[in-house]
Design a protein that fits this description.
Strand order of the largest sheet: 6-7-5-8-9-10
Largest sheet: 6 strands, parallel
Shape: globular
Distance between the termini: 59 Å
Structural class: alpha/beta
Low-confidence stretches: none
Radius of gyration: 23 Å
Mean pLDDT: 92
CATH topology of the largest domain: UDP-N-acetylmuramoyl-L-alanine:D-glutamate ligase
CATH superfamily of the largest domain: Mur-like, catalytic domain
């Protein structure tokens, strides 16, 4: 693939015109022939009318490359048959970035849970080392929107399985797969496909690159199927346990979050970062909104908004406690999801389930602990006992463990709604 040779003769179809599609067009349009298409015609406003192509004209045109948005499912879109016939031409904005900027140091972070927090934290760590660092991918700007990029710029890329599955050329100096559990199987169909999509950030690496991978038997199984050139390091849960004593940020004392910190400590060694600066950054770090965010705290009562949670595996570490937990969850159940909480924690747990797939969750939990069903989030919160004056340690945990689209636009919309309802629950102005 020679982007830089004969570039004026290249013709790009940009399919999906959200943030990444717009940035792809703006990046390519000066030197390439570009056309745009989206299943939702409302996204194609008059500002871009000279680039818009109809489906009928598109099918009769030959494109060199098809830049696809990660939100497009090849099996469920208007151009499904066309994309399948032209699969070799399908690329992503990550591929374009790499082909034009192969010398830029890139760190890719992927996994099932905690990608955004880990990516933002690494960004802050590098920023505090005075690097020119950019936060891109699923968090921050689309990668092609960044400007004034030099050979000294470092890119931290949070990459989803959707982006990696479609990519063909993108590679990183450092690739981190921080964990893996069933997710997005409605799109990938099998765990094998899901894991192999994540592993693409490793399989494209060269001899001088490094991959930090969760010590997971399932990942190891599929890793053996691939020819790997880079240096592989398996990161265990408690590799850096002694450093826990140097942390005073409660958000990272928790087992799941500390597990992800192990990757940053390991990466810090390879990048020769200052450990004191790394620890200081961690201790000053504020959690991202709706990601294990403590929104209310007294001596005895804690309320956590974890609206970003879309799987049971992301919630389970927060249920592993000897304190009483009132767990609010529900929405669209994720195919293949499993509930692997140890029985010893059942006695501390009550679940309040709402949403379209509440009966699926009910069947999972009904013989394990107390379960209450309701139609929506508002009803669930109303059913929780009044705890404002409680005198034993209690947590209200909003960790939906499901997709939000049955009742909300996205997890942010869901998180905002929870905050509003909790203010009423506590009678806080």
């Amino acid at each position: 693939m020679k982007f830089k040779n004969n570039i004026l003769s290249k013709k790009f179809l940009i399919y999906g015109f959200g943030k990444s599609g717009i940035s792809s067009l703006n990046y390519l349009k000066q030197k390439h022939k570009c056309f745009i298409f989206d299943d939702n015609k409302k996204k194609l406003n008059n500002k871009f009318r000279r680039f818009i192509i109809s489906k009928s004209k598109l099918l009769n045109n030959k494109f060199d490359y098809i830049v696809i948005s990660p939100g497009i499912d090849i099996n469920r879109c208007h151009l499904s048959n066309y994309l399948k016939k032209n699969k070799k031409k399908v690329i992503t904005d990550l591929d374009i970035f790499y082909k034009f900027n192969p010398e830029v140091l890139t760190i890719t972070i992927t996994g099932t849970n905690g990608k955004s927090t880990t990516s933002k934290l690494l960004y802050e760590v590098l920023k505090n080392h005075d690097y020119d660092v950019r936060l891109t991918g699923n968090i921050g700007n689309p990668i092609l929107k960044e400007i004034k990029v030099t050979r000294k710029t470092i890119f931290v890329v949070e990459a989803s399985s959707y982006q990696l599955a479609y990519s063909k050329y993108f590679k990183s100096k450092f690739s981190l797969i921080i964990n893996i559990s069933p997710d997005h199987l409605e799109r990938h169909n099998t765990m094998k496909n899901y894991i192999l999509s994540k592993l693409k950030c490793v399989t494209k690496q060269s001899e001088n690159d490094v991959a930090l991978i969760a010590n997971n038997n399932l990942i190891k199984k599929f890793l053996r199927l691939k020819s790997i050139k880079s240096k592989i390091i398996f990161v265990r849960k408690n590799n850096y346990n002694p450093l826990k004593n140097k942390l005073n940020n409660n958000n990272f004392i928790h087992s799941a979050n500390f597990q992800n910190l192990n990757f940053l400590f390991e990466l810090s060694k390879y990048m020769k970062l200052n450990l004191k600066t790394v620890l200081k950054t961690i201790n000053n770090f504020k959690p991202l909104k709706f990601r294990q965010e403590v929104i209310y705290r007294t001596k005895y009562l804690k309320i956590i908004n974890d609206s970003k949670s879309t799987t049971l595996s992301s919630t389970i570490p927060f249920l592993e406690t000897n304190e009483k937990v009132f767990w609010i969850l529900g929405g669209l159940f994720k195919k293949g999801d499993k509930f692997n909480l140890k029985k010893k924690y059942y006695k501390n747990l009550e679940a309040y389930i709402y949403g379209k797939d509440r009966n699926i969750f009910y069947k999972l939990f009904k013989n394990k602990f107390k379960v209450t069903l309701s139609k929506d989030l508002k009803s669930s919160i109303k059913l929780i006992p009044k705890l404002k004056d409680v005198r034993t340690k209690v947590t209200i945990l909003f960790s939906p463990s499901a997709a939000s689209f049955d009742q909300y636009k996205n997890f942010e919309d869901r998180g905002e709604k929870f905050n509003m309802l909790i203010k009423r629950y506590l009678s806080i102005k």
